[in-house]
Amino acid sequence: MISDPINMSENAEPSPAPVKQPILEMSERSLIHWMTEHDFPKYRAKQILTWIYQKRADDFQDMSDLPKDMRVLLAEHFSIFTSKTAETQHSEDGTEKLLIELADGGRIECVLLRDGPRRSICVSSQVGCAMGCVFCASGLDGVDRNLTRGEILEQMLRLQKLLEPEERLSHIVMMGMGEPLANLPRVLDALDVARDGEIGLGISPRRITISTVGLPTAIDKLAEENAPYQLAISLHAPNDELRTRLVPVNKKVGIEHIMDAADRYFEVSGRRLTFEYVLLKDLNDSPLCAEQLVKLLRHKTAMLNVIPYNPVPGLPYETPTPEAIHTFRRILMDGGINVMFRQRKGNDIQAACGQLRRLREREPQMVTLQVAENSVGNTAIAETVDGEE
Predict the structure, then answer these.
(1) Straight-line distance from the first to the last Cα atom of the chain, in angstroms, rounded to the nearest whole number
(2) Annotated catalytic, 133?
(3) Which band of pLDDT confidence, cut at 50, 70 and 90, is reported for residue 231?
(4) Domain ends where: 79, 96, 129?
(5) Is 109 assigned a catalytic role?
(6) Are residues 324 and 231 in the same domain?
């Protein structure tokens, strides 16, 4: 029996819509290749990327100097944004924070900070974090995956769109969720676009900072790549015993190896090193810790950024008292350390990355803290979560 072709046509499954390619994953070279394959002039690639990165277009139809047939074809083949903003928070000090939901359901955070004429952004490199810093919300649930080049760039563009038309981004810090040096190739790809003055965001490499907990092998790789960026190392403690308790990955590397790698990066890049130090009440804010920091950093061409802790719901750590902060600062300055005590911004919206995602995904677990003095006068830390070891 011969089937009725009309009935077969009526019952046939419709062809699936073509999967769109994220255009932020494409370099100018790869977009030029696509142009030539579709019989468009090569120069159109630069026009398109300029529209996206500099003119803040998020729809191909807004690219008014492109032919209509090209705009239609671009919309059929590409997407500009692949994520959505799940939540936006605004601080009284002008800080804005985005909770971004990625195409696969993962969530990340990024922050815009306003400080005088500066428009700085803090961008994530991973979904979660594997470094395990005990006071950080980003790493409480571990790491899910690395972000792609496009997902990193998309954060920059979403934050850029929060600005007024006459404003522009001035600084980028890879200091959001995740460890940037654990996702180095994609981070460097994204930053290449950020500093590109022709088609990208045109941000000076001197105003781009990569922040790391200190992975010596990856720092050496960064030096081999001749990366022109500022390097910030999250130190948080002046000795290995305390740092291993605060930053568990330190057990595998040690402060000495981190400092050696940082020195090698300075020799290659000529960029002044930055060391970050989150100040935690009764943990790393003692006069002894300040004195040990002086010994560690005294002869380095470096800036020490001290950041009083931003409390995280569910974690027991607190901001030091004003008296402790004052004493800590005095010891560092008397020791000749180039130090800046960073103003806390966005505290009313929990601007430290990882907090918003965790609050929206689950109720925060309370982590209890047991404190004991160790042999060198620093604080030993043991944690339990909901009564479990």
Answers:
(1) 72
(2) no
(3) very high
(4) 79
(5) yes
(6) yes
